[in-house]
Amino acid sequence: MGGRVTRVFRNFNVENRARREISKEKPTPAPRHSTARLDTMADSPEIKEEVLRKDDRFLTLLKDIYVESRDPPVQVKDRGGEHLPSKQEEKRLTKLGHLEALDIKKVPKGKISLVEALTLLNNHKLQPQIWTAEKIAAEYSLELKEVNSLLEFFIPFTVQEFPKETKKAIASQKPKMLT
Description:
Elements: H1 2-11, H2 14-23, H3 38-42, H4 45-52, H5 56-64, E1 91-93, E2 106-108, H6 114-126, H7 133-140, H8 144-153, H9 164-172
Antiparallel strand pairs: 1-2
Helix pairs in contact: 7-8
C-alpha cells in the first residue's frame, strides 16, 4: 500500500519536470589548471630545441661518474632439514577392480587412494581372517603401523534393513516432543 502512494507522488508531473530539466542551459565547465596547457607548449619549437640541446657541463660531469656493480655473495638459507627429492617418487598402479573409472590410476608407494581405502576396509570387515593387517600392508605397499591405525579408527558404514513388523512397531511409538 505504501509503495503505491509513494509511486503516485514520484510520478506526478514527470514529463513536465523532465522537459524543464532538459531545456535548461548547460553549465559552463570549470577553468582548466595551468598544467593542462603544457601539452600545447610542448609543440612549440623553443621547448623542443631546449630539450634536444646537449649541455657540455652536464656531459663532463656524467663522464666523471664511474659505476661498478657487484652482486652480493649468495647465501644459502637453511630450511630446517628440508631438501629436494633426489629422484622421482616411486608409484604403483592401483587395485580397483570394477570401480576403475572412479579413481586415479597411479598412487605413490606408501599411500592409497580413497576407493582403495574403502575397498580394503570393507574386505577386512567382511573377512578379517583372510584380510589381516600384514596382508593389507604387503598388498598396498603400506607400513604395518599405519594399516593397524587405519583398521582401528576407520570403520565403513553398514546398511541395515528392518523387517516390516519392526517398521510398524517403530512407527506406532509416539514421538517425543522436544522442548
